Amino acid sequence: MSETKPVVALIMAAGKSTRMKSRTPKVLHRVAGRAVVDYIVQAAQEGCGVQRTIAIVGHEADRVREYLTSRWGEDMGFALQSPQNGTGHAVMQAEPLLQGFDGDVLTLAGDTPLVTSDVLRSLLEHHRISGATATVLTAVMENPGAYGRVVRTPAGAVARIVEAKDATAEEKAIGEINTSIYCFRSEPLFRALARIRPENAQGEYYLTDVIALLAADGERVEAVVSPDPAVVMGVNTRSELAIAADAVRRRTNKRLMLSGVTIIDPANTYIDVEVAIGPDTVIYPGCVIEGATTIGSDCVIGPHTHLVDCALGDDVRCEHSKANLVEMADHSRVGPFAHLRPGTSLAEEAKIGSFVELKKATVGRDVHISHLTYAGDVTIGDNSNIGGGTITCNFDGRKKNPTTIGSNVFVGSNNTLVAPVTIGDGAYTAAGSVITEDVPADALALGRARQVVKEGWAAERRDRPECS
């Protein structure tokens, strides 16, 4: 068994989105709320003892570098591959960053979001226990397609890896494939890289050629077969992106259900990987729960509710509604058919009903906004009631203006509150009012035309002869 040495992870993140037909770099496409590359970085850093992570960037290098730094911190290292001339050429670009490094190099494909830390850990452990110079992670597939094939000796040792485009018909019939995930001893890796040549159909420097060189030199080359070929699936097309996202969501749903969450129809429930949900919460079908959303215990969400980066307390009900960057405190009620926009917060026991839209609204405890209302740039105190058909006129054509509604206020139906305006505690506004001036506490405000009744007018009209 070899001694335990430090580990550096190299992540291939230089490729284009050619088959995605996208301007977005392939590794930055989203899978269940995270970029593809995030999954690889996390898997490498969790439980594998990685001391340093280096991303090899190329296409849209600045964009990828900026994203990874913001997501994983300033300790993230980068090597630039320009032009992109193959996987072997990519690893060569990291050599200056590893001068004097005497350890293991975990080389990872940046487009394998389903890979797990358990799989990488097993690869690294086998590499160390066997004392190998190189260990490749392989998988066995019924239809290997465009994956490189692992060619073994009659004794079963790894002899070389041949890319599908360079393979003979006999080699293409091999079911064991290369996953583009390896563990190398650093010094032999870079010695072998200096010897590879672009003598292949692509005219590129293949990292796979290192395996053949090391094996021919008598170095120990090992292979670890992944127990599940799905976890090493590369994402190269939109179709594969959807397959990967489905797999991540199934993992997420299973984890949540094992933690005490009821998901009535997992196949029709879409929950991002970073969402947190408390026990005894029920998620109905058709829900889309995204981003960093947190949901407490004993909640009922859906059916058909869309939450993005929201924070829900305990015993919250949210049905047939949409919310983005919204806080809902314990025992609050939302929907059906409400739209809660960014900057909105609901205090305990607030009730937001049908066809209500809130934007940058601070809603107090036990406030009722039951139906057909728009409230934007508004603060509403505790125990107030907002009648149906009310709107806050917060935009004057140039800027947004605030509305302040105190506690224990009764706003009548079909009110138009022209901001900036304040309604004091305990005040009433009459139905059908247009409120343009501040209303003192405990006052009644009427802002409507006086009703005029002309008795007998309708009967007289009916008795008039029709005009020809």
Report on this structure.
This protein has 468 residues and is an alpha/beta fold. The protein contains nine helices and 37 strands. It has a 23-stranded parallel sheet that branches. The protein has a seven-stranded mixed sheet with strand order 5-4-1-6-10-7-11. β8 and β9 form a beta hairpin. α1 crosses α4 and α6 crosses α7. The chain is elongated and about 110 Å long. It starts with 6 loop residues before the first strand and ends in a 5-residue tail after the last helix. The relative contact order is 0.07.
Task: Please outline what is shown here.
The chain is an alpha/beta fold and 468 residues long.
Descriptors for this entry?
9 helices; 468 residues; 7-stranded mixed beta sheet; alpha/beta
| Amount of helix | 10-25%
Taken as a percent bin, the fraction of beta residues is 25-35%
Distance between the termini: 109 Å
Outline type: elongated
How many extended strands?
Answer: 37
Main sheet makeup: 23 strands, parallel
Rg of Cα set: 31 Å
SSE arrangement:
Blueprint: E1 7-13, E2 30-31, E3 34-35, H1 36-45, E4 50-57, H2 61-72, E5 77-80, H3 87-92, E6 104-109, H4 117-130, E7 134-140, E8 149-152, E9 158-162, H5 169-172, E10 176-185, H6 186-193, H7 208-216, E11 221-225, H8 238-258, E12 262-263, E13 270-271, E14 276-277, E15 282-283, E16 288-290, E17 294-295, E18 300-301, E19 306-308, E20 311-312, E21 317-318, E22 322-324, E23 326-328, E24 333-334, E25 339-340, E26 344-346, E27 351-363, E28 368-380, E29 385-386, E30 391-393, E31 403-405, E32 410-411, E33 416-418, E34 421-423, E35 428-429, E36 434-435, E37 444-445, H9 457-463
Parallel strand pairs: 1-4, 1-6, 4-5, 7-11, 12-15, 13-16, 14-17, 15-18, 16-19, 17-20, 18-21, 19-22, 20-23, 21-24, 22-25, 23-26, 24-27, 25-27, 26-27, 27-28, 28-29, 28-31, 29-32, 30-33, 31-34, 32-35, 33-36, 35-37
Antiparallel strand pairs: 2-3, 6-10, 7-10, 8-9
Helix pairs in contact: 1-4, 6-7
